[in-house]
Amino acid sequence: MTDERRKIMRVLSGETLSPPPLWLMRQAGRYLPEYRETRAKAGSFLDLCYTPDHAVEVTLQPIRRYGFDAAILFSDILVIPDALKRNVRFTEGHGPEMDPIDEAGILALKPDGVIAHLAPVMETVRRLRQGLPLETTLLGFCGAPWTVATYMIAGHGTPDQAPARLFAYRHPKAFDHLLMLLADISADYLVAQIDAGADAVQIFDSWAGVLGEKEFEAYAVRPVARMIASVKAQRPHARIIAFAKGAGYQLKTYRQKTGVDAIGLDWSVPLAFARDLQQEGPVQGNLDPMRVVAGGKALEDGIDDILQQLGNGPLIFNLGHGITPQADPANVAALVERVRGWRG
Fold it and tell me: Contact, 222 vs 191, CB < 8 A?
């Protein structure tokens, strides 16, 4: 079948649809009781990611509940350092941790076997494409090199990723080597997801907002541009969304410099600026996740503002970051109903 019934693919090709298609970042997650049940059965978080039976189930749960226009593969951006043997683990209350990497460790990294290590993820993608409704877009994803590198260097998340920024200033050659290595591995990983059945892919640069102008160009733009060029050279039909959280005004030239098809917007991006970005192609976003927690008028007003400002151009409705565990599933249902009921 063609992509004609997959509304998100049509928007990624530049069409304007009314109402716009929608999905939510972290739509498979802790706010859903059925997710918590499956998570408890799975054991560790990485076991959940690497066991196709469980990963397929949690990916499908929000599709069954809400009929979103896209399902996003359930996995994690840190499966790449895990495949690079950095001893990734997830501890309750602490988040992700891994062995911090130094200059020698970077030079010793070997990309061989990474895609083979991630074979269970590709099996999940294959099963999802078979199990999803034909009209539902299947999204694959990975982390952007800068964001993945920040965790590899610190060994955990930090408030402003100072360890990675400091390392990049002190060891520019080693840091550049790490970014380019991650860009090449991640590009191959996205191609493997596309080959397994993903319709489109998203690159998450969750820590782009801590970078200054020159650093954003070197660490957030250049590696992502390299990734996208590689993916499109191998799979010219590929459609790619990039979400550079906190990038603000630096998004002005991001599409042009990276070659990305659609720009994901966080909730801090002014809608007037978003409208300017939309003149050049599709945008995705950007409801504040706290409005979904609040519900009621706060939720309705936030949805209406986005639809009124961006609904007459190529838009994929989404949150400006992932849905939080505190969100009421009933508020998500109200969100879906309000977006689907809109006519521009």
Answer: no
Beta partners for 263?
Answer: 242, 283
Judge residue 329's burial from the number of C-beta atoms within 10 Å of its C-beta, 0-12 exposed, 13-18 middle, 19 or more buried: middle
Q: Which sequence positions are flagged as catalytic?
A: 26, 30, 39, 76, 151
Contact assessment for residue 329 and residue 295, using Cβ atoms and an 8 Å cutoff = no
Instruction: Identify the H or E element spanning 305.
Output: helix 296-310
Residues 6+ apart with CB under 8 A from 250: 208, 213, 216, 220, 244
Residues 316, 262 contacting (CB under 8 angstroms): yes
Residue for token digits 């493997």?
192
Q: What is the pLDDT of residues 234-265, one digit of tens each?
A: 999 999 999 999 999 999 999 999 999 999 99
Angle, helices 119-131 vs 172-196, to 10°: value is: 40
Q: How far apart are CA 290 and CA 301, in angstroms?
A: 13
CB 70 within 8 A of CB 59: no
| Residues forming beta bridges with residue 138, ordered by sequence position | 71
| Cross-strand pairs, 243 | 204, 264
- The DSSP letter of residue 311 is T
Residue-averaged pLDDT of the chain = 97
Per residue in 37-92, pLDDT (tens digit) is: 999 999 899 999 999 999 999 999 999 999 999 999 999 999 999 999 999 999 87
What is the reported pLDDT for 344? 78
pTM over cut 0.85: yes
Tokens of 326: 């505190």
Amino acid at 214: K
Distance CA 12, CA 289 (A): 23
Rounded to the nearest 5 percent, the helix, strand and coil shares of the chain are 55, 10, 35
Task: Please check the confidence at residue 1 and state whether its pLDDT lies above 70.
Answer: no
